[in-house]
Structures are given as C-alpha cells and as structure tokens.
Amino acid sequence: MALMTWEDSYSVHVPMIDEQHKRLFALVNQLHEAMSKGKANDVMSRVLGELVSYTKTHFAAEEKLLQSKNYPDLKAHQAQHQKFVEKVELFQKEFAGGKITVSGEVMNFLRDWLSGHILKTDKRYSEFVAAKN
C-alpha cells in the first residue's frame, strides 16, 4: 500500500509542477514499499540520492516559475526548500555512515513535509500564479 496517494487536492494547477510532485510521491512510495518488505536498506541509498537530486531539480523549476511571476513570498519559499534539502541530505549522510536506518520517523518526515508543503505553501502560490496568467 502506498504511503502517499495523489489526489486532486494536491494540484497547484500548473501541470509541470503537478507532474514533478507526483514523481516525488513515487520516490517516497518506493522507499516505503521497500521498508514494508524489509528491503529498505537495500534501496535507501539509491532512493535518497534520487530524492535529493530530483528535489533540487523540482525546486529549481518551481522557484524559476515563481521568480518569473514576481511571487512576493519567493524568499521564504526558497528557505523552506533549502531546509528540506538539508534534512534529506543529512538522512543520506547518516545512512551512508551507518547512523540511521529507514524508519517510520524518516518516512513520516518525508510524507508530512511533502504533503504539508504542497497543501499549505505551494497552494498559496497556486492562486497567485493563476491570477498572473
């Protein structure tokens, strides 16, 4: 069973961004599925690497869009993105060093941050971007 399921309520009504969000959901779900099968440690390094890389790609695209629309809360939005990347990079480093394993705590952080960020922070720019189009 997937940890995160895409629903229309997550849509920010920017097709490119929605597709990128769906990809992030898929990466979190890959990790969750592996954890539920007891194989999380086998895929943790790869999935965390993909998550860090893809998150940076997604955040750059999102921030470029917001900059092009002169979004007034861009700096705060970028700060949230940076904190997330730092946290996931820390997970990656700690996993590589044998300090953590895939756990409910890691999964809950990923799920809660991603859904909360989309539903609260990203939804704020959704209306702004729609009004600018």
Question: Secondary-structure map with pairings?
Answer:
Layout: H1 15-36, H2 40-68, H3 74-96, H4 104-132
Helix pairs in contact: 1-2, 1-4, 2-3, 3-4
Structure description:
The chain has a single domain (16-32, 43-132), classed as Four Helix Bundle (Hemerythrin (Met), subunit A), CATH 1.20.120.50. It has helices spanning 15-36, 40-68, 74-96, 104-132. It is globular, with a radius of gyration of 15 Å. It is an all-alpha fold. The protein contains four helices and no strands.
Overall shape: it is: globular
CATH superfamily: Hemerythrin-like
Q: Catalogue the unreliable spans.
A: none
Q: pLDDT average, as an integer?
A: 89
Order of helices and strands: HHHH
Describe the structure concisely for a colleague.
The chain is built from four helices and no strands. The chain is an all-alpha fold and 133 residues long.
